[in-house]
Protein backbone atom coordinates (compact mmCIF):
# COMPACT_ATOMS: atom_id res chain seq x y z
CA UNK A 1 0.00 0.00 0.00
CA UNK A 2 1.42 3.37 -1.04
CA UNK A 3 1.02 6.09 1.57
CA UNK A 4 1.77 9.78 1.31
CA UNK A 5 2.07 12.34 4.06
CA UNK A 6 -0.83 14.78 3.98
CA UNK A 7 1.22 17.68 5.28
CA UNK A 8 4.99 17.82 5.57
CA UNK A 9 6.62 19.45 8.57
CA UNK A 10 8.47 22.69 7.92
CA UNK A 11 11.84 20.95 8.33
CA UNK A 12 10.76 18.33 5.78
CA UNK A 13 9.20 20.62 3.19
CA UNK A 14 12.12 23.07 3.25
CA UNK A 15 14.94 20.65 4.00
CA UNK A 16 17.06 21.73 1.02
CA UNK A 17 16.79 25.39 1.97
CA UNK A 18 17.80 24.64 5.56
CA UNK A 19 20.76 22.55 4.38
CA UNK A 20 21.88 25.29 1.97
CA UNK A 21 21.67 27.88 4.73
CA UNK A 22 23.67 25.65 7.09
CA UNK A 23 26.43 25.31 4.47
CA UNK A 24 26.53 29.05 3.76
CA UNK A 25 26.20 30.17 7.37
CA UNK A 26 29.48 31.52 8.73
CA UNK A 27 28.05 33.60 11.55
CA UNK A 28 28.12 32.74 15.24
CA UNK A 29 25.41 30.31 16.31
CA UNK A 30 24.00 30.31 19.85
CA UNK A 31 24.52 26.99 21.70
CA UNK A 32 22.53 24.11 20.16
CA UNK A 33 21.15 26.29 17.33
CA UNK A 34 21.31 24.71 13.86
CA UNK A 35 21.63 28.15 12.24
CA UNK A 36 22.76 31.60 13.28
CA UNK A 37 20.10 34.25 14.01
CA UNK A 38 20.93 35.87 10.65
CA UNK A 39 20.38 32.57 8.81
CA UNK A 40 17.11 31.93 10.66
CA UNK A 41 15.89 35.38 9.62
CA UNK A 42 16.90 34.67 6.02
CA UNK A 43 15.05 31.35 6.15
CA UNK A 44 11.87 33.07 7.38
CA UNK A 45 12.03 36.26 5.28
CA UNK A 46 13.60 34.81 2.14
CA UNK A 47 16.63 35.80 0.08
CA UNK A 48 19.27 34.52 -2.31
CA UNK A 49 22.49 32.91 -1.07
CA UNK A 50 25.93 33.40 -2.61
CA UNK A 51 25.70 30.01 -4.32
CA UNK A 52 22.48 31.06 -6.04
CA UNK A 53 20.11 29.13 -3.78
CA UNK A 54 16.78 30.95 -3.54
CA UNK A 55 15.22 30.93 -0.07
CA UNK A 56 11.47 31.36 -0.34
CA UNK A 57 9.85 33.78 2.13
CA UNK A 58 7.76 32.06 4.78
CA UNK A 59 6.50 35.32 6.29
CA UNK A 60 5.68 38.48 4.35
CA UNK A 61 5.63 41.51 6.59
CA UNK A 62 7.87 43.57 8.85
CA UNK A 63 11.41 42.19 8.89
CA UNK A 64 12.03 44.05 12.15
CA UNK A 65 9.32 42.04 13.94
CA UNK A 66 11.00 38.81 12.83
CA UNK A 67 14.41 40.06 13.98
CA UNK A 68 12.97 40.99 17.38
CA UNK A 69 11.35 37.54 17.70
CA UNK A 70 14.58 35.72 16.84
CA UNK A 71 16.70 37.94 19.09
CA UNK A 72 14.31 37.22 21.97
CA UNK A 73 14.95 33.49 21.60
CA UNK A 74 18.69 34.04 22.09
CA UNK A 75 17.99 35.49 25.56
CA UNK A 76 16.52 34.01 28.74
CA UNK A 77 13.04 35.28 27.88
CA UNK A 78 10.43 33.25 26.02
CA UNK A 79 8.56 34.54 22.97
CA UNK A 80 4.82 35.21 22.85
CA UNK A 81 3.26 35.80 19.42
CA UNK A 82 -0.07 37.60 19.61
CA UNK A 83 -2.49 38.55 16.84
CA UNK A 84 -5.99 38.00 15.54
CA UNK A 85 -6.73 34.53 14.15
CA UNK A 86 -5.23 34.02 10.71
CA UNK A 87 -2.18 36.28 11.02
CA UNK A 88 0.27 33.37 10.73
CA UNK A 89 1.31 32.93 14.36
CA UNK A 90 1.39 29.13 14.24
CA UNK A 91 3.02 29.16 10.79
CA UNK A 92 5.77 31.51 12.01
CA UNK A 93 6.32 29.57 15.26
CA UNK A 94 6.71 26.32 13.34
CA UNK A 95 9.29 27.80 10.97
CA UNK A 96 11.23 29.47 13.77
CA UNK A 97 11.44 26.13 15.59
CA UNK A 98 12.47 24.37 12.36
CA UNK A 99 15.19 26.93 11.63
CA UNK A 100 16.58 27.01 15.16
CA UNK A 101 16.23 23.39 16.33
CA UNK A 102 15.55 21.48 13.13
CA UNK A 103 12.49 20.06 14.89
CA UNK A 104 9.08 21.74 15.04
CA UNK A 105 7.24 18.81 16.63
CA UNK A 106 7.81 19.64 20.31
CA UNK A 107 4.31 21.05 20.56
CA UNK A 108 1.72 21.53 23.30
CA UNK A 109 -1.76 22.37 21.98
CA UNK A 110 -3.51 24.57 24.50
CA UNK A 111 -7.18 23.90 25.29
CA UNK A 112 -9.51 24.40 28.22
CA UNK A 113 -8.76 20.80 29.18
CA UNK A 114 -4.97 21.02 29.08
CA UNK A 115 -3.57 19.62 32.34
CA UNK A 116 -0.32 20.36 34.11
CA UNK A 117 1.18 17.01 33.16
CA UNK A 118 0.93 17.97 29.46
CA UNK A 119 3.37 20.80 30.18
CA UNK A 120 5.53 19.01 32.78
CA UNK A 121 5.44 15.19 32.63
CA UNK A 122 3.19 12.18 33.08
CA UNK A 123 3.58 8.53 34.00
CA UNK A 124 3.30 5.14 32.37
CA UNK A 125 0.82 3.84 34.93
CA UNK A 126 1.45 0.15 34.24
CA UNK A 127 5.15 0.66 34.99
CA UNK A 128 4.35 2.97 37.88
CA UNK A 129 2.13 0.37 39.58
CA UNK A 130 4.56 -2.47 38.92
CA UNK A 131 7.79 -0.75 40.01
CA UNK A 132 6.87 2.56 41.56
CA UNK A 133 8.18 5.96 40.45
CA UNK A 134 11.24 5.58 38.24
CA UNK A 135 12.93 7.27 35.33
CA UNK A 136 11.63 4.52 33.04
CA UNK A 137 8.03 5.13 34.12
CA UNK A 138 8.23 8.88 33.56
CA UNK A 139 6.68 10.17 30.30
CA UNK A 140 8.27 13.50 29.37
CA UNK A 141 6.21 16.33 27.95
CA UNK A 142 7.34 18.14 24.77
CA UNK A 143 8.59 20.93 27.05
CA UNK A 144 10.73 18.53 29.11
CA UNK A 145 12.08 16.94 25.92
CA UNK A 146 13.03 20.40 24.63
CA UNK A 147 14.78 21.19 27.92
CA UNK A 148 16.83 17.99 27.73
CA UNK A 149 17.84 18.64 24.13
CA UNK A 150 18.38 22.40 24.23
CA UNK A 151 15.57 22.88 21.71
CA UNK A 152 12.56 25.10 21.07
CA UNK A 153 9.19 24.03 22.51
CA UNK A 154 5.96 25.44 21.12
CA UNK A 155 2.77 26.13 23.05
CA UNK A 156 -0.28 26.94 20.96
CA UNK A 157 -3.20 29.03 22.25
CA UNK A 158 -1.61 29.76 25.62
CA UNK A 159 -4.55 31.84 26.85
CA UNK A 160 -6.92 28.89 26.38
CA UNK A 161 -5.00 26.93 29.02
CA UNK A 162 -6.37 27.29 32.60
CA UNK A 163 -4.46 29.88 34.63
CA UNK A 164 -3.20 27.44 37.28
CA UNK A 165 -1.77 25.22 34.53
CA UNK A 166 -0.17 28.21 32.79
CA UNK A 167 1.72 29.00 35.97
CA UNK A 168 3.53 25.66 35.76
CA UNK A 169 5.67 27.48 33.20
CA UNK A 170 6.97 30.08 35.65
CA UNK A 171 9.69 27.93 37.22
CA UNK A 172 10.57 26.42 33.84
CA UNK A 173 11.04 29.83 32.21
CA UNK A 174 12.68 31.65 35.12
CA UNK A 175 14.90 28.91 36.58
CA UNK A 176 15.24 26.76 33.44
CA UNK A 177 14.43 23.91 35.79
CA UNK A 178 11.65 21.31 36.04
CA UNK A 179 11.48 19.63 39.46
CA UNK A 180 10.45 15.95 39.56
CA UNK A 181 9.75 15.49 43.29
CA UNK A 182 8.63 11.87 42.87
CA UNK A 183 12.19 10.99 41.84
CA UNK A 184 13.91 13.49 44.12
CA UNK A 185 15.58 15.20 41.15
CA UNK A 186 15.09 17.95 38.60
CA UNK A 187 15.61 18.37 34.88
CA UNK A 188 17.86 21.30 34.00
CA UNK A 189 17.51 22.86 30.58
CA UNK A 190 20.45 22.76 28.21
CA UNK A 191 21.52 25.97 26.52
CA UNK A 192 19.38 26.67 23.48
CA UNK A 193 16.12 25.76 25.20
CA UNK A 194 13.30 28.26 24.90
CA UNK A 195 9.56 28.48 24.38
CA UNK A 196 7.48 30.03 21.61
CA UNK A 197 3.85 30.53 22.65
CA UNK A 198 0.95 31.87 20.62
CA UNK A 199 -2.29 33.54 21.64
CA UNK A 200 -4.98 35.33 19.68
CA UNK A 201 -6.55 38.68 20.43
CA UNK A 202 -10.05 37.21 20.47
CA UNK A 203 -9.19 35.08 23.54
CA UNK A 204 -8.19 37.96 25.79
CA UNK A 205 -10.02 37.71 29.07
CA UNK A 206 -10.54 33.94 28.87
CA UNK A 207 -7.43 32.96 30.83
CA UNK A 208 -5.25 36.04 31.01
CA UNK A 209 -1.62 35.46 31.88
CA UNK A 210 -0.55 36.29 35.42
CA UNK A 211 1.84 39.20 35.87
CA UNK A 212 4.56 36.76 36.92
CA UNK A 213 4.18 34.77 33.71
CA UNK A 214 3.94 37.84 31.47
CA UNK A 215 7.35 38.97 32.74
CA UNK A 216 8.88 35.74 31.42
CA UNK A 217 7.74 36.51 27.87
CA UNK A 218 8.67 39.10 25.31
CA UNK A 219 5.50 39.82 23.33
CA UNK A 220 5.52 40.37 19.57
CA UNK A 221 2.22 41.41 17.98
CA UNK A 222 1.70 40.11 14.46
CA UNK A 223 -0.53 42.56 12.58
CA UNK A 224 -2.75 41.95 9.62
CA UNK A 225 -1.00 42.84 6.34
CA UNK A 226 -0.54 46.58 6.02
CA UNK A 227 -1.38 46.81 2.32
CA UNK A 228 -3.59 44.98 -0.14
CA UNK A 229 -0.53 44.12 -2.25
CA UNK A 230 1.15 42.47 0.72
CA UNK A 231 -1.97 40.47 1.54
CA UNK A 232 -2.45 39.39 -2.08
CA UNK A 233 1.17 38.19 -2.16
CA UNK A 234 0.64 36.12 1.02
CA UNK A 235 -2.58 34.56 -0.24
CA UNK A 236 -1.10 33.82 -3.67
CA UNK A 237 1.94 32.06 -2.24
CA UNK A 238 0.04 30.01 0.33
CA UNK A 239 -2.67 29.00 -2.13
CA UNK A 240 -0.01 27.75 -4.54
CA UNK A 241 1.73 25.79 -1.77
CA UNK A 242 -1.48 24.23 -0.47
CA UNK A 243 -2.78 23.44 -3.95
CA UNK A 244 0.43 21.53 -4.63
CA UNK A 245 0.25 19.70 -1.30
CA UNK A 246 -3.40 18.77 -1.77
CA UNK A 247 -2.79 17.84 -5.42
CA UNK A 248 -5.85 19.76 -6.60
CA UNK A 249 -6.40 19.21 -10.34
CA UNK A 250 -7.27 22.85 -10.98
CA UNK A 251 -5.56 25.85 -12.50
CA UNK A 252 -4.18 28.33 -10.00
CA UNK A 253 -6.38 31.43 -9.85
CA UNK A 254 -5.49 34.65 -11.62
CA UNK A 255 -4.20 37.46 -9.43
CA UNK A 256 -7.40 39.40 -10.09
CA UNK A 257 -9.55 36.70 -8.48
CA UNK A 258 -7.40 36.69 -5.34
CA UNK A 259 -7.41 40.49 -5.27
CA UNK A 260 -11.22 40.49 -5.24
CA UNK A 261 -11.33 38.21 -2.21
CA UNK A 262 -8.70 40.26 -0.42
CA UNK A 263 -10.53 43.51 -1.24
CA UNK A 264 -13.82 42.18 0.16
CA UNK A 265 -12.12 41.03 3.36
CA UNK A 266 -10.16 44.25 3.88
CA UNK A 267 -13.19 46.46 3.32
CA UNK A 268 -15.50 44.49 5.59
CA UNK A 269 -13.06 44.20 8.48
CA UNK A 270 -11.96 47.84 8.11
CA UNK A 271 -15.49 49.24 7.78
CA UNK A 272 -14.50 51.37 4.80
CA UNK A 273 -14.43 50.92 1.03
CA UNK A 274 -11.10 50.73 -0.76
CA UNK A 275 -11.37 54.28 -2.10
CA UNK A 276 -12.27 55.61 1.36
CA UNK A 277 -15.53 57.16 0.17
CA UNK A 278 -18.10 55.01 1.95
CA UNK A 279 -18.39 53.51 5.40
CA UNK A 280 -19.73 49.97 5.69
CA UNK A 281 -20.69 47.73 8.58
CA UNK A 282 -18.29 45.00 9.73
CA UNK A 283 -19.50 41.44 10.35
CA UNK A 284 -18.73 39.46 13.50
CA UNK A 285 -15.96 37.29 11.98
CA UNK A 286 -12.28 38.22 11.79
CA UNK A 287 -11.96 37.90 7.98
CA UNK A 288 -8.23 37.35 8.32
CA UNK A 289 -5.62 36.52 5.73
CA UNK A 290 -5.83 32.87 6.78
CA UNK A 291 -9.55 32.84 5.98
CA UNK A 292 -8.89 34.43 2.58
CA UNK A 293 -6.49 31.57 1.82
CA UNK A 294 -9.16 29.09 2.87
CA UNK A 295 -11.81 30.74 0.65
CA UNK A 296 -9.60 30.53 -2.44
CA UNK A 297 -8.55 26.94 -1.71
CA UNK A 298 -12.17 25.89 -1.18
CA UNK A 299 -13.02 27.51 -4.50
CA UNK A 300 -10.22 25.60 -6.22
CA UNK A 301 -11.52 22.33 -4.76
CA UNK A 302 -15.00 23.07 -6.12
CA UNK A 303 -13.58 24.01 -9.53
CA UNK A 304 -11.40 20.89 -9.65
CA UNK A 305 -14.03 18.33 -8.66
CA UNK A 306 -17.33 19.90 -9.73
CA UNK A 307 -16.32 22.34 -12.46
CA UNK A 308 -14.00 22.63 -15.41
CA UNK A 309 -10.84 23.12 -13.36
CA UNK A 310 -10.91 26.91 -13.63
CA UNK A 311 -11.87 29.01 -10.64
CA UNK A 312 -15.26 30.61 -11.35
CA UNK A 313 -17.30 33.23 -9.53
CA UNK A 314 -19.67 30.52 -8.26
CA UNK A 315 -16.74 28.68 -6.66
CA UNK A 316 -15.52 31.78 -4.82
CA UNK A 317 -19.01 32.84 -3.75
CA UNK A 318 -19.56 29.73 -1.64
CA UNK A 319 -16.43 30.32 0.43
CA UNK A 320 -16.96 34.08 0.69
CA UNK A 321 -20.50 33.70 1.98
CA UNK A 322 -19.46 31.13 4.57
CA UNK A 323 -16.53 33.24 5.75
CA UNK A 324 -18.58 36.43 6.16
CA UNK A 325 -21.78 35.03 7.64
CA UNK A 326 -20.99 33.68 11.11
CA UNK A 327 -24.09 35.14 12.76
CA UNK A 328 -27.02 34.09 10.54
CA UNK A 329 -29.09 37.16 11.42
CA UNK A 330 -26.71 40.10 11.88
CA UNK A 331 -24.05 39.06 9.36
CA UNK A 332 -26.55 38.15 6.65
CA UNK A 333 -27.96 41.69 6.72
CA UNK A 334 -24.47 43.22 6.62
CA UNK A 335 -23.42 40.97 3.72
CA UNK A 336 -26.54 41.71 1.67
CA UNK A 337 -26.04 45.43 2.22
CA UNK A 338 -22.41 45.17 1.08
CA UNK A 339 -23.44 43.25 -2.05
CA UNK A 340 -26.04 45.84 -3.07
CA UNK A 341 -24.20 49.04 -2.18
CA UNK A 342 -20.57 48.14 -2.96
CA UNK A 343 -20.06 44.99 -5.04
CA UNK A 344 -22.98 45.60 -7.39
CA UNK A 345 -21.56 48.96 -8.47
CA UNK A 346 -18.08 47.65 -9.36
CA UNK A 347 -17.13 47.16 -12.96
CA UNK A 348 -16.10 43.59 -13.75
CA UNK A 349 -17.61 42.19 -10.55
CA UNK A 350 -20.99 41.24 -12.05
CA UNK A 351 -20.47 37.47 -12.03
CA UNK A 352 -19.25 37.43 -8.43
CA UNK A 353 -22.07 39.70 -7.34
CA UNK A 354 -24.74 37.48 -8.92
CA UNK A 355 -23.21 34.30 -7.47
CA UNK A 356 -22.97 35.77 -3.96
CA UNK A 357 -26.47 37.24 -4.16
CA UNK A 358 -27.98 33.86 -5.02
CA UNK A 359 -26.34 32.25 -1.99
CA UNK A 360 -27.09 35.14 0.37
- Uncertain segments are none
In one word, what is the shape?
globular
- CATH superfamily label of the largest domain: P-loop containing nucleotide triphosphate hydrolases
CATH fold naming of the largest domain: Rossmann fold
Mean pLDDT score, rounded?
93
Helix % is: 40-55%
Strand order of the largest sheet: 4-7-10-3-11
Largest sheet: 5 strands, parallel
Count of all domains: 2
Walk me through the structure.
The chain has 360 residues and is of the alpha/beta class. It folds into two domains: 10-221, Rossmann fold (3-Layer(aba) Sandwich); 228-359. It has 17 helices and eleven strands. The chain has helices spanning 10-13, 15-24, 37-45, 63-73, 89-101, 116-119, 125-131, 142-149, 163-166, 169-175, 211-214, 228-246, 255-270, 289-306, 313-324, 330-341, 350-359, and strands at 47-48, 54-55, 78-83, 107-109, 121-123, 138-140, 152-156, 177-180, 185-188, 194-200, 217-221. The longest helix has 19 residues, at 228-246. It is globular, with a radius of gyration of 23 Å.
Task: Summarize the structure in short.
This protein is α/β, with parallel strands linked by helices. The protein is 47% helix and 12% strand. It has helices at 10-13, 15-24, 37-45, 63-73, 89-101, 116-119, 125-131, 142-149, 163-166, 169-175, 211-214, 228-246, 255-270, 289-306, 313-324, 330-341, 350-359, and strands at 47-48, 54-55, 78-83, 107-109, 121-123, 138-140, 152-156, 177-180, 185-188, 194-200, 217-221.
What are the main properties of this structure?
about 45% helix; alpha/beta; globular; five-stranded parallel sheet; Rossmann fold; two-stranded antiparallel ribbon
Amino acid sequence: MITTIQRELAEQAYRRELEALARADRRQRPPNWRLSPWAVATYVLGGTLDDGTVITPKYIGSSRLIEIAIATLTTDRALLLIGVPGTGKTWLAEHLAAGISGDSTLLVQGTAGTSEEVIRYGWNYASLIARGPSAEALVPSPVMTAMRGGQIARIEELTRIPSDVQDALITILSEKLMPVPELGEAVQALKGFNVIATANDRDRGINDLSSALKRRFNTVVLPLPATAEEEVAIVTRRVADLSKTLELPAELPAAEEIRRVVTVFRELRGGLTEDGRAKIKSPSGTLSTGEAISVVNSGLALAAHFGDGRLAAEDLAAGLTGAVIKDPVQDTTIWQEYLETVMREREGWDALYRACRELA
